[in-house]
Structures are given as structure tokens and as C-alpha cells.
Amino acid sequence: MRSEALFINGVFEGVLEEILQVQAQLPDQIMFLQPFAGSPMVELRDDPPTVEAPMTLFLSVTSDLPTVRYAAEIVGWDDKRELSPQKRNVLNRLLYCLQPGEGGLYDAARTDEGKSVNLLYIRRLRKLQTPFGVERLIKTSDGKPVSPNRSTSGGWSYVRLADGAA
Prior knowledge:
By secondary structure, the chain is of the alpha+beta class. It contains 3 helices and 7 strands, in the order βαβαββαβββ.
């Protein structure tokens, strides 16, 4: 596991519950998240996680932005703008089957920037038995804690836990 983790602020809990339904039976089944952002997650693009070298993912939900309630492993990343037609077709089939609430791959219609370019491949999603405040996450960009005072969903940060674990 990498020492750096990714925090995503404010995911719809329904998306996570749909993933949990599958992964409760098949924890290693790779599922998908499509964060609303018009730019690529640069560290993931430049050094994508793999099944052999995953990255920890921490998530807050739209109804409770200041609390990390879920964690998972990121095992892959794609820029949806660069998918071949064949891969796009396979991914759409998987999404419609395993995550019907997602409605397949999406882009311009669902974000302020007009795009959703990042596709995260995740496994082993779990709802934390003991949720914790986002301020325990230290941003690797500036060494400061993630602010618990957010009022809107969206955005991500590369982080480490204040106690050193990822």
C-alpha cells in the first residue's frame, strides 16, 4: 500500500451503498467512481495505482462533509476522454450491470466544469465502524489538515493520516 492516500470530499452515499451491495459478497470485485471534475487527478495519472500497489481512498459523503465515513483501495485510474471505443463499451456494460444507479460513463452533463474525466477503479470499500474527522487527514501538498469547514461537495486532496498511516 502506498504511503499517500486520496481523500474525496462529498460522494453521494447512494453510489457507495450500491458498491457495498456487490462488494459485501465479492470484496475484490472492482467497481467504479466518477468524481465530478474537469481535470485529471495528476498523481493518479502519472503513477496509476494497481491491484499489486493500491492507494488508500478516504471518502466523506454529501450529508456529512466533515467526517470520513468510508475507505477503499484504488487499484486503477483512467482518463475517460482517452478510452478506446472497445474499452468504453466494456466499462459501460459493467457499470449498467453492477452499478445501474450510475447510468454508465458520464461526462459533460453532470459537472460545473462541463466534464468528468477521472474514472477510479476501486475494491474493498468499507463503511468505517469508527468514522473520524477530516482534520485527521494531512494534505501532502502543504502539510496542513483538511478543513472540516466545507459547505459544498467536490474536490479531492492527496493526504496522509496525522498518525502516519495511510
